[in-house]
Design a protein that fits this description.
Layout (H helix, E strand, L loop, with lengths): L1 H16 L15 E10 L6 E12 L3 E3 L2 H13 L8 E3 H5 L6 H4 L1
Parallel strand pairs: 2-4
Antiparallel strand pairs: 1-2, 2-3
The structure holds zinc ion.
Length: about 110
């Protein structure tokens, strides 16, 4: 499988480069790698569902690819402050980060 080969390569690279590896939040596996995942996300107001591409994710050899709890919160926070009017329903995480911000007084 091409996927597991990529995972092996990524693990080798992270060991050689001495990059910080994240511990899996489910099984405490320490050999996780950074990955990305596409995900459907309901806006905080519940009125719109977005398909968000390339969200930074954790790739655990035992649990698979998933979005960590802190990243989950970060996406939520960014969805609250990003003004996605005029954006399509399918967009990348990067686009959300760079979207115009809602002015805080408009939230009140
Ligand atoms: Zn795991």
């Amino acid at each position: 499988m091409a996927c597991s080969l990529l995972l092996l390569l990524a693990m080798r690279v992270s060991k050689q480069g001495g990059y910080h590896t994240m511990e899996c939040q489910w099984c405490n596996e320490t050999h996780t790698t950074e990955s990305t995942q596409d995900c459907y996300w309901t806006m905080p107001d519940g009125k719109r569902t977005l398909r968000i591409l390339q969200i930074p994710a954790v790739d655990c050899p035992k649990c698979g690819v998933y979005i960590s709890e802190p990243m989950n919160q970060k996406v939520e926070e960014n969805l609250v402050i990003a003004d996605l009017t005029g954006y399509p329903d399918t967009l990348t995480y990067d686009q959300i980060l760079h979207a115009p911000k809602i002015r805080l007084f408009d939230l009140k």
